[in-house]
């Protein structure tokens, strides 16, 4: 079991936490508003021999490093969807999105876990999904009809996974992709690619803001995945470890900025909330230590707990999340000047050294 | 958000001694890597000027804690422009274009070679880099390599968007500025007024302009050299820059198609659409070349200038196969550039160009004839795939020896110092004429000169080059000898001091140590009692091998082959060894020997001279009476040769019944056994090949060639040969078993079948003889049947031709090839190496070392354990070996020509090849091969007048190899068939245009 899941909180503490989060407005243990991000420390271009890299350190002490390396690879014929040969006679290959997943590879290393453990595999799948959902990355990786870049995104969590590490890893990946540069192509057409030996001439995978500041067009940005929880009627972004422990539902929303500068959702997943694993409280009437009602049958005890519905003691949340709540989460994340833009804007300000 | 870490990449102006640089490297496999290198900068790299006291103090001590002395003079020479004296800082292009100039004695001194420049030169041209390194090692030249990329003050980072060239230019300027300032403070510290200028030498205008704004002295080569004495001669040595070449011909039409880009070529070659190979020009037809590519069995033909697209023989090119309707049969005509394009004007490219394009009218006509015939003609020579050159991967230009075309010189008055463009005709017929601009053209007429090709642009019909130096008058012995040594890249300079330092200090007084306790005697067998003798050509001084034989009590024989123990004197890896490895072999010219090892070793200390004790490496066998080996043994030894025979004297001694001493008896045993060995070898299918060998007998004093004789082969020649072969084979299997990966062996690949096809067909058609080529045995047997009872020489001729069909033998490292490929085809043995001539061949020396290690005499040097190093050695040896043979042949050819000087001889000759416009004949008496043109067929003309240069009409029947020539002016017709015996008149002729003497053959 992942370390973040097993919190030594008593049912009473859990109950207290939950009820304060469920209030309107919610009261979070660290005093943040529902959509406020915790401060973080970030830097990019920290690995000299990688094509792009970044390091992010969250305030809770979790820290991750991501390195992106690119290699030239030959494109197999079936990766390309030949476009209507008959019309113009010229074959223009486009990457077939279904098979282009193999054009990049994300591997996640978390201390204490094997690379085939469920957590790293699931996290890698989610990050891959977000990158693929964007569809643009594979276009950027195409060199010509015969060759493409293959990206190796190596994610390394430096600290123990004290809280669910998805947002950290996603933000670090985002930042490293922003700083990723590919050697400048000097060959033409479908020749075997030749590249300029000048690193300074290399081009950014995702164009930098200043390069087309004059045009109204915004540059697209790699996706980020945000963690959102619901507690009662509230939706809360960037949950801390404690907050996760009482969340009713945990949703990972991947958003990206498209060419028009708008936020859009590219992937969505619910995550098994750690709160379901917490121990439920025992109603006073059933407490053996107080000795009031020592002999209650099992079935009765069950019924009593159900009736209580978590009103008086802590009961792990059950059930899913309704559609209205989901769409509210998505709307909040992608809102103009909302949290999505705030986070991306913040990361864009990180100076690539 | 805050950043915690110091940024990694450093800023543009490093203040600490740690910096890094980043670049992208593309590997051969297509992988692209970002490389980051850390750079540790220092402040103790000296400026090496004698003016500067501080640098001499800060310099870290080197080997044996000695400090290197400062190189640059305190009082460098001045010029008009820099009267206070100056140090030169040339940029990369200065070295690339004017290396010949820098090499001139006493012209350039006190030169600072920046590391940036040195590295760039290395990337651009390895040969030039080696020459530059040689210059920096030359004490008198005072060239100093300054490691500016490692000195804190002169190190610069590449800026964003800066090309690497701009960055390097900036580095050069930065270093100049530093030197300037550094020298100023140094002279101030000394209290002297005179501070030498630091002059940057570059032809880059932009660079000069920037230097000016930075306050750095700069000059371009042209103007700098103009300020020196003897500027005319020096300026000729500067390669003509591209700007100069193009100058004034902007409107010039582009003669040649553009080359493909490098990436397009590589893609094409990878995908199989294009092919890569070495461009070879036919020695008979300068417009026809072949490229052998791995994809096809036969070489692709490249016809015409346009298709060969500026490729020069030897270049590595990429070709594209032409469509089938353009396929042609190989040309059956002899074309020589000199004959066709006599009237080209070197000066005026534009006019001539617009009129004729790349291919002159004559050339086009000559080619047309070919095509016509190819269309008419039949099965015998089917059209073969042709190709065109689309790009050049690597130029293999070297320095070429040639002479100035007299017709291209406008004003031949020696006084006029006008710069004019002249043609230089290279000695190598396969190389096109080279256009050269010179002010001393008139002076160079009639001289052998050395030139370099600088480039070949699309708008120029011929390559452009520059003079390097003059070798001397045509036909003087010195000039011609040097010319052919240069042509074949034979290293003929005297041995440098470092090499001579490796010789034993006793010199000629060195003796085998008397005391058996001496370390030289350890593990060495004392064989001084054996009756050893050597048999060599008369007058041989470098005696590699000696032999002995004696009867053993059990009826078997003991045979010993004793080889000079050169490896005792030449230790692996020292300067002498490196020099020997570079030279690869001793080169024998008619009147000169260019040694692989210094004279002291070759002709004295190692040479197994008679009557003195010498170290040897002995192979001793016990053989039964049928020459089967019972036991073999290898040992280092000491021998004392009893006698040094010449082949003839040995033969006489063996034949003389009166001689009954043990030595003679031993030689008779050897003779008897050698005949048995030979019979066995022949039965196994060894080939008895022939090459035209003649000996020039030179009168000793003047060494003007007097007479030419074909070499005689005696039984004693074969005696020595048999035992040397036996020793080589024994040693080869021994070292291969000891070092399966790195044994240095020699192999002779079986020739591909199609090589023999043509010759077999010719023999069948003309002589009704059969040449089978399934195996070496079949070849050997069928060659024996190719006998014309009336013509004893015919068989030799066939053998000469058969030899040319074969591949050449090569050295290799045993780990590179599978064991089944080790076979030596010609000798019909499974394994072979060279062991018996360590004085004159480097391979043998290596084999000695490997053998010594395999018998635990001494440990194997690491150089001989690395496969890569052995492979590199093999590659060089193969080239050197071939070049040495070629140089030797060229020397004989020259002397034969000299022997014929002023004489008119009529000799028998055999037709070797027929062309549509001439025949190639071989003259056995002189061993020369020459072309007889149709116009030199004297008997078809009523008056045998060779000055009549009309071309008679002739038809060539390529199926029957018959050339029918119609008579001129009612003269009688003549039919010449391949292999016919004819009589030719040989005389020498001085060519009008060049003043060059040629052997001329006329058919009688």
TrEMBL record, chain A:
InterPro entries: Exosome_comp_Rrp42_subfam, PNPase/RNase_PH_dom_sf, Ribosomal_Su5_D2-typ_SF. Residues 77-94 have a biased composition (Basic and acidic residues). GO terms for cellular component: cytoplasmic exosome (RNase complex); nuclear exosome (RNase complex); nucleolus. Its main location: cytoplasm. One of its GO terms (biological process) is TRAMP-dependent tRNA surveillance pathway. The keyword Cytoplasm applies. It comes from the Eukaryota. The keyword Transmembrane does not apply. Keywords: Cytoplasm, Exosome. It is found in: Cytoplasm; Nucleus, Nucleolus. Residues 77-100 are annotated as: Disordered. GO terms for molecular function: mRNA 3'-UTR AU-rich region binding. Belongs to the RNase PH family. This is Ribosomal RNA-processing protein 42. It comes from Polychaeton citri CBS 116435.
From TrEMBL, chain B:
PROSITE patterns: RIBONUCLEASE_II. One of its GO terms (biological process) is nuclear mRNA surveillance of mRNA 3'-end processing. Keywords: Cytoplasm, Endonuclease, Exonuclease, Exosome, Hydrolase, Nuclease, Nucleus, RNA-binding, rRNA processing. It is found in: Cytoplasm; Nucleus, Nucleolus. Residues 86-209 form the PIN domain. Its cofactor is Mg(2+). One of its GO terms (molecular function) is endonuclease activity. SUPFAM superfamilies: Nucleic acid-binding proteins, PIN domain-like. Residues 330-362 are annotated as: Disordered. Residues 524-857 form the RNB domain. Belongs to the RNR ribonuclease family. PANTHER family: EXOSOME COMPLEX EXONUCLEASE RRP44, RIBONUCLEASE. This is Ribosomal RNA-processing protein 44. It comes from Polychaeton citri CBS 116435.
């Amino acid at each position: 079991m992942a370390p973040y899941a097993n919190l030594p909180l008593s049912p009473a503490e859990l109950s207290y936490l939950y009820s304060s989060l469920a209030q309107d407005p919610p009261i979070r243990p660290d005093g943040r508003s529902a959509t406020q991000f915790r401060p973080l420390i970030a830097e990019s271009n920290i690995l000299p021999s990688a094509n792009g890299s970044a390091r992010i350190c969250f305030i809770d002490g979790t820290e991750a490093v991501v390195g992106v390396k690119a290699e030239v690879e030959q494109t197999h014929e079936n990766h390309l969807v030949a476009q209507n040969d008959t019309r113009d006679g010229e074959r223009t290959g486009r990457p077939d999105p279904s098979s282009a997943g193999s054009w990049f590879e994300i591997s996640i290393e978390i201390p204490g876990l094997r690379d085939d453990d469920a957590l790293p595999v699931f996290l890698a799948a989610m990050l891959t999904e977000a990158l693929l959902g964007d569809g643009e990355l594979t276009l950027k990786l195409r060199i010509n009809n015969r060759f493409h870049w293959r990206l190796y995104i190596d994610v390394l969590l430096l600290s123990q996974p004290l809280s669910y590490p998805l947002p950290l890893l996603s933000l670090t990946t985002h930042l490293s992709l922003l700083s990723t540069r590919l050697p400048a192509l000097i060959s033409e057409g479908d020749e075997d690619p030749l590249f300029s030996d000048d690193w300074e001439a290399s081009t950014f995978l995702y164009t930098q803001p200043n390069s087309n500041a004059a045009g109204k067009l915004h540059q697209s940005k790699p996706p980020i995945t945000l963690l959102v929880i619901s507690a009662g009627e509230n939706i809360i972004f960037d949950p801390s470890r404690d907050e996760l422990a009482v969340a009713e539902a945990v949703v990972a929303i991947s958003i990206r900025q498209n060419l028009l500068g708008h936020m859009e959702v590219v992937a969505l997943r619910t995550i098994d909330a750690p709160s379901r694993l917490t121990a439920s409280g025992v109603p006073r009437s059933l407490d053996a230590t107080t000795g009031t009602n020592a002999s209650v049958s099992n079935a009765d005890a069950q019924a009593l707990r159900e009736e209580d519905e978590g009103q008086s003691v802590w009961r792990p949340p059950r059930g899913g999340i309704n559609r209205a709540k989901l769409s509210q989460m998505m709307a909040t994340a992608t809102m103009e000047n909302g949290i999505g833009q705030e986070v991306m804007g913040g990361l864009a300000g990180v100076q690539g050294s | 958000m805050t950043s915690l870490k110091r940024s990694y990449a450093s800023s543009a102006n490093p203040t600490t001694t740690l910096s890094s640089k980043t670049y992208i490297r593309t590997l051969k496999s297509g992988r692209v890597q970002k490389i980051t290198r850390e750079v540790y900068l220092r402040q103790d790299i000296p400026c090496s000027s004698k003016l500067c006291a501080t640098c001499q103090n800060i310099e870290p001590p080197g080997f044996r804690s000695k400090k290197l002395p400062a190189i640059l003079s305190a009082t460098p020479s001045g010029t008009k422009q820099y009267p206070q004296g100056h140090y030169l800082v040339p940029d990369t292009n200065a070295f690339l274009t004017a290396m010949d100039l820098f090499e001139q004695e006493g012209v350039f001194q006190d030169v600072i070679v920046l590391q940036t420049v040195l590295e760039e030169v290395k990337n651009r041209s390895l040969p030039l880099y080696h020459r530059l390194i040689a210059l920096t090692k030359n004490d008198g030249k005072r060239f100093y390599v300054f490691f500016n990329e490692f000195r804190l003050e002169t190190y610069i980072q590449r800026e964003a968007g800066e090309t690497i060239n701009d960055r390097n230019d900036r580095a050069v300027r930065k270093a100049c500025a530093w030197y300037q300032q550094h020298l100023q403070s140094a002279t101030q510290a000394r209290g002297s007024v005179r501070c030498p200028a630091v002059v940057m030498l570059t032809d880059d205008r932009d660079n000069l302009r920037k230097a000016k704004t930075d306050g750095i002295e700069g000059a371009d080569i042209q103007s700098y050299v103009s300020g020196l004495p003897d500027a005319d001669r020096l300026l000729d040595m500067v390669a003509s820059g591209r700007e100069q070449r193009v100058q004034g011909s902007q409107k010039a039409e582009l003669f040649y198609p553009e080359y493909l880009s490098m990436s397009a070529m590589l893609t094409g070659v990878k995908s199989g659409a294009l092919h890569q190979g070495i461009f070879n020009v036919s020695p008979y037809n300068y417009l026809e070349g072949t490229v052998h590519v791995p994809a096809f069995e036969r070489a692709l033909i490249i016809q015409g200038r346009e298709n060969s697209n500026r490729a020069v023989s030897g270049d590595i090119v990429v070709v594209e196969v032409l469509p089938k309707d353009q396929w042609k049969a190989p040309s059956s005509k002899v074309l020589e550039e000199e004959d066709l394009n006599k009237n080209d004007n070197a000066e005026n490219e534009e006019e001539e160009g617009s009129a004729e394009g790349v291919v002159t009218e004559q050339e086009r006509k000559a080619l047309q004839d070919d095509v016509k015939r190819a269309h008419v003609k039949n099965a015998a020579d089917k059209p073969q795939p042709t190709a065109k050159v689309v790009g050049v991967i690597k130029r293999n230009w070297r320095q070429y020896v040639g002479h100035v075309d007299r017709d291209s010189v406008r004003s031949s008055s020696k006084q006029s110092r006008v710069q004019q463009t002249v043609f230089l005709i290279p000695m190598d017929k396969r190389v096109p004429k080279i256009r050269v601009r010179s002010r001393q053209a008139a002076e160079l007429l009639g001289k052998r000169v050395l030139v370099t090709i600088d480039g070949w642009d699309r708008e120029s019909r011929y390559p452009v080059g520059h003079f390097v130096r003059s070798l001397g008058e045509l036909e003087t012995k010195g000039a011609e000898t040097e010319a052919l040594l240069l042509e074949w890249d034979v290293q003929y300079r005297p041995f440098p001091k470092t090499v001579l330092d490796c010789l034993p200090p006793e010199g000629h007084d060195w003796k085998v140590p008397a005391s058996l306790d001496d370390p030289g005697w350890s593990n060495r067998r004392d064989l001084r009692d054996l009756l050893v003798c050597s048999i060599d050509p008369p007058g041989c001084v470098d005696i590699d091998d000696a032999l002995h034989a004696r009867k053993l009590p059990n009826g078997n024989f003991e045979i010993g082959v004793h080889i000079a123990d050169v490896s005792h004197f030449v230790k692996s890896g020292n300067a002498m060894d490196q020099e020997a490895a570079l030279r690869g072999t001793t080169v024998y010219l008619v009147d000169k020997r260019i040694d692989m090892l210094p004279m002291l070793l070759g002709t004295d200390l190692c040479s197994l001279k008679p009557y003195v004790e010498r170290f040897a490496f002995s192979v001793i066998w016990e053989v039964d009476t049928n020459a089967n080996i019972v036991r073999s043994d290898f040992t280092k030894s000491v021998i004392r040769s009893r006698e040094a025979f010449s082949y003839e004297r040995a033969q006489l001694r063996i034949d003389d019944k009166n001689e009954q001493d043990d030595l003679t008896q031993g030689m008779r045993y050897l003779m008897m056994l050698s005949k048995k060995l030979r019979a066995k070898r022949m039965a196994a299918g060894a080939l008895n090949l022939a090459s035209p060998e003649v000996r020039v007998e030179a009168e000793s004093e003047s060494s003007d060639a007097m007479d030419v004789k074909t070499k005689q082969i005696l039984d004693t020649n074969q005696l020595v040969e048999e035992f040397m072969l036996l020793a080589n084979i024994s040693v080869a299997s021994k070292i291969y078993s000891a070092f399966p990966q790195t044994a240095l062996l020699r192999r002779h690949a079986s020739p591909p079948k199609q090589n023999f096809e043509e010759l077999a067909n010719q023999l069948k058609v003309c002589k009704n003889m059969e040449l089978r080529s399934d195996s070496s045995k079949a070849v050997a047997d069928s060659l024996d049947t190719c006998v014309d009872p009336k013509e004893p020489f015919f068989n030799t001729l066939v053998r000469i031709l058969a030899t040319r069909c074969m591949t050449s033998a090569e050295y290799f490292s045993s780990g590179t090839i599978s064991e089944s490929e080790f076979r030596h085809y010609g000798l019909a043995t499974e394994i072979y190496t060279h062991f018996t001539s360590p004085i004159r061949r480097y391979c043998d020396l290596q084999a000695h070392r490997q053998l010594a290690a395999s018998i635990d005499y001494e440990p194997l040097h690491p150089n001989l354990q690395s496969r890569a190093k052995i492979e590199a050695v093999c590659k060089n040896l193969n080239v050197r070996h071939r070049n040495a043979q070629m140089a030797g042949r060229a020397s004989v050819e020259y002397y034969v020509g000299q022997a014929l000087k002023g004489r008119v001889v009529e000799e028998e000759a055999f037709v070797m090849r027929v062309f549509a416009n001439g025949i190639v004949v071989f003259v056995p008496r002189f061993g020369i091969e020459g072309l007889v043109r149709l116009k030199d067929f004297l008997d078809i003309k009523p008056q045998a007048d060779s000055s009549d240069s009309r071309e008679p009409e002739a038809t060539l029947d390529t199926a029957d190899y018959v050339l029918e020539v119609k008579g001129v002016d009612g003269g009688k017709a003549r039919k010449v068939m391949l292999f016919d015996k004819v009589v030719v008149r040989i005389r020498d002729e001085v060519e009008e245009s060049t003043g060059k003497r040629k052997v001329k053959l006329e058919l009688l």
